Amino acid sequence: MVGFGLVYGGRGAVFWSSLARVASSWVISPLMGAMVSFLVYKFIRRFVYSAPNPGQAAAAAAPFAVFLGVTGISFAAFPLSEIFPLALALALACGAAGAILVDRIIRKKLGHLLVKASSTQPEPKENAIHSKNIGLLSDFAGPKGTQLEIVYGVFGYMQILSACFMSFAHGGNDVSNAIGPLAAALSILHGGASGTDIVIPLDVLAWGGFGIVAGLMMWGYRVIATIGKKITELTPTRGFAAEFAAASVVLVASKLGLPISATHTLVGAVMGVGFARGLNSVRAETVREIVVSWAVTIPAGAIFAVFYTWILTKLLSYIL
Length: 320
Fold this sequence. Notes:
Layout: H1 2-9, H2 16-49, H3 54-77, H4 84-119, H5 145-189, H6 202-230, H7 236-256, H8 262-277, H9 284-319
Helix pairs in contact: 1-9, 2-3, 2-7, 2-8, 3-4, 3-5, 3-7, 4-5, 5-6, 5-7, 7-8
């Protein structure tokens, strides 16, 4: 957008204050993602892994997380009511319904393991003696055996929901970035007066959704491998913490109208989970490559925009 504006209108055509706000989000969003995921994972370690019965604690924590996520989405994304108290009450009701549904699914799928874990003595945790002296950026051994199976089973189901939550937030922000220039052009063609008057046809939104799904199917596996394996070692609990934290940050930014990068936020969230396990748990080389690629894409995008604008201008002047 900046490259195009510089070609057609010079420096005065670019709203530099808005650009500064967007650029600041490139730094703030991964930091926020890292901070929130760090806290979420530490919460899981404190109230699930360190509980006398980690399996039961995980089964109790899952509905609470679903309640928060569904309530947040219902309140922030869907116009349940224009009256604030009623909208909040409906959002809380949706969150409660989601929590009850997830609790029943967990009890149905993992009930036999929960009964088994409750009827046996608590399984010893490795390094239990040292767990009291851990630092904020340290890791300690968690549950083993049946307890670990329950915890991973619960958060395996939860990670499906957190992935959907992250996909929803990603569509609300990054896909909007892609559709934004097209929506502005269509608004001009239809006589729109200002950015607040932009009305986006549903077929345009559908094309944006189709594009992101097609890109995921063809090239997504490369990014999946990088984020899932090359930054830090992920488990169902760590993956859930990263996705839940990143989705929450992106959803809040979308509500505020800030065009942050969901990828930046998720990478930061994965790093935050890694830092929660210890500073050496994050692969610095991979992070360095990612940050360099972020920096390179900014001037590269501007250069390509200038080049394409020049080519299209020449072609149109020749045709017309």
